[in-house]
Structures are given as C-alpha cells and as structure tokens.
Amino acid sequence: MNKKQKTVLWRILITAALFALLEALQRWGPLNALPTWALLGCYLVPYGVIAYDVVGKALRNLRTGAIFDENLLMTIATVAAFAIGAYDEALAVMLFYQIGELFQKIAVGRSRGAIKALLEIVPQSANLETEDGVTEVDPDDVSVGQIIRIRPGERVPLDGDVIEGSSSLNTAALTGESLPRPVEAGEAVYAGCINGDGTLRVWVTKAFEDSMVTKILELVENASSKKAKAEAFITRFAKIYTPVVTAAALLLFLISVLCGGDWSEWLRRACIFLVISCPCALVISVPLGFFGGIGACSRAGVLVKGSNDLEAAAKLSSLVFDKTGTLTEGTFSVTAVRALNGTEDDILRFAAAAEAGSTHPIAQSIVAAYEKTPDADLLRELREIPGHGVTAAYDGKTLLVGNERLLTQYGVAAPPHDAAATAVYVALDGDCLGIISIADRVKDGAKEALSSLRNAGVRRLTMLTGDRKAVGEAVAQSLSLDAVYTELLPDQKVTQLETLLAEKQPNTTLGYVGDGINDAPVLARADVGIAMGSMGSDAAIEAADVVILDDDLHKLGATIRIARKTTRIVKENIVFALAVKALVMGLGAFGVANMWLAVFADVGVSVLAILNSMRMLKKQ
Prior knowledge:
Helix content: 40-55%
Largest sheet: 7 strands, mixed
Oligomer: single chain
Number of strands: 22
Distance between the termini: 26 Å
Strand order of the largest sheet: 10-22-21-20-11-18-19
Shape: elongated
Structural class: alpha+beta
C-alpha cells in the first residue's frame, strides 16, 4: 500500500468512526432534538472527510467536459440523498464507495506489480574495460565493439559475444527456462540474463537501446496500445452507455413526478439508477484481464505484442509451420559427398568458399565439413540468388553452388540424388562436379508438442518448406501433419499462405510459425505470426505478433491455453457485470433496490470482476 492509499485508509477509518458515533447518538436520542440544519451539519463533517476528492474531481471534470464519470454520478447521488433527508444513507454510500475504490486500487496495484517484477531485468551498470582498468559505467555509455567484463552473479548488461571465459547463464527472465545455459568463448549472450559462477569477457555487438532486454521492455510496455476487440468495444460502450443511463435516470424522475409521484421517492430511485450506471467494472477489469494474460505469457518466455494479438491467438484453429529450425533442429550436417567430376576435397573446397559468408544452416554445415579455413580469395563476383544458391567466378569460369533449380536456370543437367537428404550441387563451367548430401533431423519432443496443440483445439497443422518434396514429406509423415507444401520460394510461401487463409473457417484465425528471419513476409501476412527460437533476432520482433524466445515447441500450446483462458475471463466479466447492472437497474426502477444494493452493483461487481481478472496472474 502506497502513501496515497494509506491516506485514503485513514480517511475511511475516521469517517467510519464518526458515522458510528452519529448513528449511536441518533439511536440514543441526543441528535433527535437538533434542528434539521444542525443535524445536516453533523453529517456533512464526515462526508467532507470522505468525499472531498470525489466531489473535487467531479467539479474539475465539469470544467474539462469529461462529465459522465463515476465521480459526478456519486456526487449527484449523495447530494440528492442529503436533499431528501437521507443523511445516513448519503454518508454510507460515499463511505462504501471509497472502501471499494481503495480495494480496487490495491488489487490493480498488486496486479501491475506482479507483472512489473517480471520486467525488472534491466541492468543498471556495466563493467567496461579501459586503459586504466575496469570502470563501472551506465550501459547506455558502452559502444559496439567495446569489451565488458561480467562477474559471477551479475546481470548481463548488453548483448555480445564471449571472447574469454566460461560460465552458465540463468535465462529465465528472457526465455522462462529454469535450467542454466552453459556459455563459453565464441557464443552469444543477451542482456537481462544472470551470470553464474564464471567471469566472462564479452565483445559488445549491440548498443543498449538495441539490446534484447530493451526490445522486450518496449514490447510489454507498449502492449496496452494494441487493444483487443473486446477492449475497444468496452471503451466505445462506456462512452455511450453512461450518458444514456444518466438521461434515463433523469427521465425516470421527471416523468414520474409529472405523473403525480412522490418526488422524494422517485429522486431516490433516480439516484440509485445513477450509482448503478458506473461502468468501472468493465472499464477496469477487461484491460486488466488482457494485461494479466500478457504477463502470464511473459513469465513463460513468450512475448505477445498486444491484447489484440492475444485475442487472435485464442481463436487459432490452424497453424502453419516452417520446417528448418522450427520443426527440425536446423543443425544440418554433411552426410555424403558424391564426386562426379573431380575429387571430394575439390567439391567441398569450392562449396565452402562460396558459402563462407552465409549464416544459413546448410551453408554453415558445408563450411564445418570442409574442416579447413575457406579460401576467400579463391572466388570472385559472389552473388546469392534467394531460394536457389550462390554463383561466383573462378579462373574465368562460372561456379554454381546450390539446388537443382539453380543448375536448371543455367542449363546444367542435375543428376539424381538421395531423396531423403537435401542436395547441394557444385557445377563449374557447365559440368556438375558433384553432389553434397545434407540432412537435418526432427526436434526432440516435436511430435508430442504438436499433439498437445491438437488437444488445445488446433484442428489443422500444415508445413511450408523450400526443401525438396521427398524431404518435406518425410518430415511431415513423421510428425503426422495434415498437409505439406514443398519446394516453395519465399514469395510462393506467401501465396500459399493466402490460399490457406481463404480456406479457414469463419471466426477463426490462422497462425504461421517460423524462425523470424527468412520467413518475415509470411509472419507478417498471417493472422498471428509466431517467431520461434528467435532470441536476438530483430526480424522476428519486427515481423511477428508473438515471439517465443527459445525453440521450445511446447510453449505454443501453453500460449494458446493462456490466450483462451484470458478471453474466457474477459467474457465472464462482461456478462456478469452487465447482467447484475441490468437486474439491479430494473429493481431500482420499481423501488425494490435500495442504495446499498446499488453500491454493490457498482463497487461490489467491480471488485469481483477485478479478482476474477487477477486469476491470470497466477502461474499457468
């Protein structure tokens, strides 16, 4: 409880004590002898203690034009209660209103605090190596290319590559993974992780504002700006609903009085109508529900960019997967080198030189298989053709390193190869020198993760890949996928995805799961773009709606379950709040409901809806 909330609590206690004293004196008789104006003055004292901020906000809002809010409605209702002589009721309504408001603020504060704790991963300092030794500086003051030192137990301040030392990193703040990840020289580390028991020297690769932890914070902090349809509906609804109900309360009073009704009784009913009309149960609890859902995903190492994306994830009925790095390990290895014209060493030498500058897993596997340093001066005029391969010049001749489509494009005959592996052809001046066979393997636990997706309600699982038909179908069969589309170029993946989008069921969404780099166009086109295993990938964060910070396929099912639980809670709050308000409004119009029941329909329903939303803050 903060200082402001403690002040409100003291005001509540003082008002409650004065109220109890006045009620006792009135029951015992001393107050009954007082004239009306004196009795009114006695009740106005505690009313002023408890209501001055509410009345003040109502008057300020009148000047700014924000008329229809709960402060004005409560002010009108209690002032009208004083006007008809219901002093104790006016004071009690404001007292219990403030008690409810305090409880709401404490609940919301704790909810935000629980999520804020997830985001308190921003490092406060970095140990920068300088000519004078190691200096502690602000992470913002460290430039790319400088060297920092991370001692045991410290939080990694910036993204970089380890150049000396070995340790283990606690990545739970970023990925939700509880097991430490071992790191050594040559491996990447990311800001926000906690170093274990070893000292690391790290070469900084990204400025602080571009680091992973900064991007995570920006995503979560900006998530509320992307409203779900339910949130947008409640915002529009509240703007229309409150003035309409206020007008209805006024008409109820005027028509009944004009028809000969007791003005004091109908004024009281109109006041009850006003108290009930406050839409705070919806305005507070619905955004809080989505905020809690986003926080639950964050704890699991899943970033959701906005509540609209979480709402869309709840409707997922179809998921489309990339193959390499998503369903398979993405760690290719050369399984065979078939020499047709030349030696195996020559074939690997040409291929490694052509692929040395690429970060593609297939290219890296070729370089690794060569086991020597590729000769960068061997080739000239290197040119990459997306979806085909690489061309270069060698001793005045054209060198081709790529798939069958590349050879066909240059009029070179492609000999048959092992259909179970990916083939990389090496051709020189129109002759195919040989074939490099490269294989990948399905990720451990992938089949179980896809089975859990079906249990979560995803009805159709599809795979899109640029790989050969035989390779793609073998993977699809091993994972029991519903469909597979192979040998697709990046633009063809988008076209195929658009076809699948047109075929989906109404009121459902289709998601695409990829590595976030090569699949950026498809991620952006899907209803829900999900980037897998993309910690540190700028393309993933930019293109995807949901970012899973490691390569754990099981988190897909968890994300869908969280999304569906969130939308279910939000719908429960909307139906419950509207139903109670409608019921009590009807009872109030017929004189059955009193002011106490009206307070429950406003404050009580708000508290219950907020408590329901707070269920999302529990560990899922």
